[in-house]
Amino acid sequence: MHFSPSAQGVLVGAPVAVSRFDTRAIAGLFETHGPVVFRRALRLLGNRADAEEATQEIFIRVVRGAEHFDERSQLTTWLYQITTNYCLNQLRDAGRRRALSEANAAPPDDAKSGGAEELALMRQLLAAADPREAEAAVFVFIDGMSHDEAAEVLGVSRRTVGNLLERFTTWAQTRTQEGR
Predict the structure, then answer these.
(1) Is 78 buried (19+), middle (13-18) or exposed (0-12) by CB count in 10 A?
(2) More confident residue, 121 or 95
(3) CA 178/CA 166 separation, integer angstroms
(4) pTM of the full predicted structure?
(5) How far apart are CA 81 and CA 117, in angstroms?
């Protein structure tokens, strides 16, 4: 389904149009795309309660920012980008709070298996990384996108994606070797 903005700041498309005051359209948009946004937030944040809160906040932002949606991408691409940015900001904020409250935090309870430990480490790295590099890393390393797909979503060249990932990987390796 593809949505486009109207002159009044409304997302228009079959079967619903979303404006700040059209609760049925908002409910339809949430019903259609909420599960995708939730799964993305859960994967990035690693906590069901945080993912539920993020999903609600993301749809609030979608409704408030409907006039900023242009037809350069599909609605799902736009939602993915909003979700990624919101979750990365949440991870950064959590990292800052954690650093202020304690020097060495214990690993999360859900980080018992090797995969969970790796994902927890990835979240910590994403929270501290350069935002553009972190965004590219999420799309390629977590979502499994190709460099071409990530380039399209980020609005950059394939080569830029490669450069972002190379800088992120080098930085992450240095950071983990230093034991941070």
Answers:
(1) buried
(2) 121
(3) 18
(4) 0.54
(5) 25
Q: What is the pLDDT of residue 4?
A: 36
Residue 16 DSSP SS3: coil
Q: List the beta bridge partners of residue 19.
A: none
Q: Of 165, 177, 125, 160, which Cα lies nearest the Cα of 141?
A: 165
DSSP string, 21-76: T-HHHHHHHHHHHHHHHHHHHHHHH--HHHHHHHHHHHHHHHHHTGGG--TTS-HH
Residues 38 and 55 sit within 8 Å (Cβ to Cβ): yes
Rounded Cα distance between 14 and 3, Å, is 7
CB 134 within 8 A of CB 164: no
Instruction: Tell me what percent of the chain is helix, strand and coil, each rounded to the nearest 5.
Output: 70, 5, 25
Domains of the chain in sequence order: 4-107 (1.10.1740.10), 129-180 (1.10.10)
Quick check: 179 and 129 in contact, CB under 8 A?
no
Question: CA torsion angle for 96, 97, 102, 108 (degrees, to 10)?
Answer: -100
